[in-house]
Design goal:
- This protein is α/β, with parallel strands linked by helices.
- It is about 35% helix and about 15% strand.
- The chain is built from five helices and seven strands.
- Helix 2 runs parallel beside helix 3.
- The longest helix is centred in the C-terminal third of the chain and has 13 residues.
Length: about 170
């Protein structure tokens, strides 16, 4: 799955890392594998393009970003390499969710905290944003079906645990 994606964002909450994967053309230290293949574009989801501030207002009801959020969001949108480290409660999730909506791209979110994944999925779904959860135990066929839905469907976010990256479907 990962080797077939281009201009996709990968976000990990282990150390609050935000990586724009289109920047990685050699080796990714996050996965320790080679990313020098040719990539294909994913089908884009039908979300109208709004400014980051309009997205923040429309989906979260905030008029402005918190300190440091705007810097991270703007860097991701500008296709810069980004490592965003923010304190607890600073709104890290918005830092990757807004650029995905603004750029109308898909994102893989990696987190070892299942309860955090479930909370984020519930919050996104309440806002009408499609996402998929691959963090729990499930069979090979279920994972394969959900990955196919993610690649071809309107889902913008794929949440998974670090252990899921070891499965054959991700290699």
């Amino acid at each position: 799955l990962l080797s077939s994606m281009r201009d996709m964002f990968i976000f990990g909450s282990i150390a609050n890392i935000y990586l724009n994967f289109s920047q990685f053309t050699k080796t990714s230290p996050l996965f320790g594998r080679c990313w020098n293949q040719k990539f294909i574009y994913l089908k884009k989801s039908p979300i109208p393009i709004l400014s980051p501030t309009e997205i923040l207002k429309q989906y979260w009801g905030y008029d402005a970003f918190r300190p440091l959020q705007k810097d991270v969001v703007d860097s991701i949108i500008s296709n810069d390499k980004v490592l965003g480290i923010l304190p607890t409660g600073a709104g890290k999730s918005i830092c990757y969710q807004v650029p995905v909506l603004h750029l109308n791209k898909k994102a893989i979110v990696i987190s070892p905290l299942i309860s955090l994944i479930e909370d984020q999925i519930n919050n996104l779904q309440k806002r009408g944003i499609a996402c998929i959860n691959l963090s729990g135990p499930m069979g090979f066929r279920d994972v394969e079906r959900l990955l196919g839905n993610f690649q071809a469907g309107p889902h913008l976010f794929l949440f998974c645990s670090p252990e899921r990256l070891q499965s054959k479907l991700f290699k």
